[in-house]
Amino acid sequence: RNEIIYLNFSKMKLFYFFFCILLFLNQLSFQTFSYNLNSINKDIVVAILTYNRPYYLKKCIDSILKYLPSQYELVVSQDGFDEDTAYLLLQYPSIIKLMHTRDATGGTDEENPGYYAIASHYKFLFKTLIEERNYKNVIVIEDDLEISPDFFEFFSSTIPLLSKDNTIWTISAFNDNGQYQFVSNPETLWRSDFFSGLGWLMTANLWNEFKNKWPNAYWDDWMREPAQRKGRVEIRPEISRSKTFGFEGTSVQEVDNKLEEILLNSKFIKFSSMNLDYLIEVLLF
């Protein structure tokens, strides 16, 4: 029995060694693609955060790759080392892989250490992509989300609004009240004072505002506080462009029938051919 355990441990170490080599080579490729090829869009990068749910991650990746524009890079950031997750990622050579040393310290909430690890992982992701890789916009997706056919059309068409209106601070693909009985028009977009998350945009300007005070845990609740929001709004669709299918994880208790009933848009809406200036705040003097 001891011999079997030793062999399994040795196999794991060998797998980890080769994975680290591949990850290192991948980072060299990341730098080459990011800095030397003009075809890569430095304005927008798509990033998936994952930990140890490869069965969710595969569904998420496949959903994104189905609709991902060719000019966008897709990054998957793994929090800590999970062998099954790492093996899955090796099956997607075109995806850029990042690995974060899992860190659940920084607080006293012993019942939910995962919330501290998640906040630390987000901070690592934004620091890497915005501060080190110089991306202007990061579309953030967790590994238990699937997206609509016009997910990227929605983001690419609404991101320019941020430069026209400083009362818009982010864009989200998700409507918390998007249950099928409450929504009807796939073309309608709204200004909302509630931060939705679940497929959202972090800009370089917003990260520069947050990077020195990013919380140790519960980052999404922190973003909803008045001190962070400062009266600003997000743009989100009436019918969601993202939907969670996760029932395992740190926030599993929050996934209930209301989230199951969220309607995911199935019709491609060409927002780029629409005038979206109605979403810009009009100041009356």
Shape estimate: globular
Helical/strand content category: alpha/beta
Oligomer: single chain
Total DSSP helices: 9
Low-pLDDT stretches are 1-9, 28-39
Mean pLDDT: 86
Rounded to the nearest angstrom, the distance between the terminal CA atoms is 80 Å
| Helix-strand string | HEHEHEHEEHEEEHHHEEH
The largest sheet, given as strand count, sense and whether it forms a barrel, is:
5 strands, mixed
Adjacency order of strands in the biggest sheet: 3-2-1-4-8
Which value, in Å, is the CA radius of gyration?
20 Å
**In percent terms, what proportion of residues is strand?**
15-25%
Q: How many E strands?
A: 10
As a percent range, the share of helical residues equals 25-40%
Question: What would your notes on this structure say?
Answer:
With 285 residues, the chain is α/β, with parallel strands linked by helices. Helix content is 37%, strand content 17%. It is built from nine helices and ten strands. The strands form three sheets. The chain has a five-stranded mixed beta sheet, sandwiched between helices. A three-stranded mixed beta sheet has the order 6-9-7, with no helix packed on it. Strands 5-10 form a two-stranded antiparallel sheet. Helix 3 links the parallel strand 2 and strand 3. The longest helix is centred in the N-terminal third of the chain and has 35 residues. The N terminus is likely disordered.
